[in-house]
From TrEMBL:
It comes from Glutamicibacter soli. It comes from the Bacteria. Residues 6-178 form the SGNH hydrolase-type esterase domain. Keywords: Hydrolase. This is SGNH/GDSL hydrolase family protein. One of its GO terms (molecular function) is hydrolase activity. It holds the Pfam family Lipase_GDSL_2.
Length: 262
């Protein structure tokens, strides 16, 4: 029985891909990958990711548990929440990230890392682009050092289309998570982790026609978004709280996950 374990923050928990029947009420790309793995082969799946977690928290709260579960493949993406904090010491954090990846690699576990998304077209997050570029270069150096797999989110330009994103503009929506699942399965298949490329098992939704909004309508949408999503996000940053503070991992133990699992 092969074991796939996912760890990290909201990206891997599945925020933006709503599903009220699942733990934490989200599905996400990792669940979608696991569904294909479990349907196609002898796989089990666990997911320790929780929204809002920073690199240090992933190391302190998820790494030891993940190692004790002895996965065959572990996916790891953390750092987005650190990049958003200009005072965070990215160099020191990435040294810790390196040490974490080394522990998995030394244990003989196949590691899948992610680069960060290119925010060049984001009015809100474009100023974080230089820090994301540094993060990505560090990730690629770590991948070279420990011979890990890389899902190169930065270079997958399809995700620049706003229709792949959730209404909060912070996370991928259902279409984005579905596309990411296909991309990850392609990486796993290309590198022989799976017996063949199973990405075709993922049916990526057809995107709706792009909305064309008048200037006044767009302004009203932006103001509504700022009230509903941006203001609470800023408040959490100022108060040192996280949307994941009251949540537990979706799947802390291995399961056989099907598309209808809850």
């Amino acid at each position: 029985m092969a074991k796939f374990l996912a760890m990290g923050d909201s990206f891997t928990e599945g925020v933006g891909d709503d599903d009220p029947l699942r733990p934490n009420q989200v599905r996400g790309w990792a669940d979608r990958v696991a569904e294909v793995l479990c349907a196609r082969g002898d796989w089990e799946y666990a997911n320790l990711a929780i929204r809002g977690k920073k690199i240090g928290q992933v190391i302190n709260q998820q790494m030891d548990q993940a190692l004790s579960m002895k996965p065959d493949v572990v996916s790891l993406y953390a750092g987005g929440n650190d990049i958003l904090r200009p005072k965070a010491d990215l160099e020191a954090l990435m040294r810790s990230y390196d040490s974490m990846v080394k522990r998995f690699a030394d244990a003989g576990i196949t590691v899948l890392l992610f680069t960060g998304f290119d925010t060049v077209d984001s009015p809100l997050f474009s100023k974080t682009r230089p820090r994301t570029a540094i993060y990505n270069e560090k990730v690629r150096e770590i991948a070279d050092r420990y011979n890990t797999l890389v899902a190169d989110y930065w270079r997958w330009r399809e995700f620049s289309d706003v229709r792949y994103w959730a209404v909060d503009r912070l996370h991928m929506g259902t279409a984005g998570h579905t596309l990411m699942a296909a991309k990850v399965l392609d990486v796993l298949g290309t590198h022989g982790v799976t017996e063949g490329n199973w990405s075709s098992d993922i049916e990526v939704p057809v995107l709706p026609a792009a909305a064309v909004n008048a200037r006044g309508q767009k302004l009203r949408q932006d103001l509504g978004w700022a009230r509903e999503y941006l203001a609470p996000w800023v408040k959490r940053r100022l108060t040192g709280t996280s949307s994941g503070d009251s949540l537990s991992a979706k799947y802390p133990d291995y399961i056989r996950l099907g598309a209808e699992s809850s």
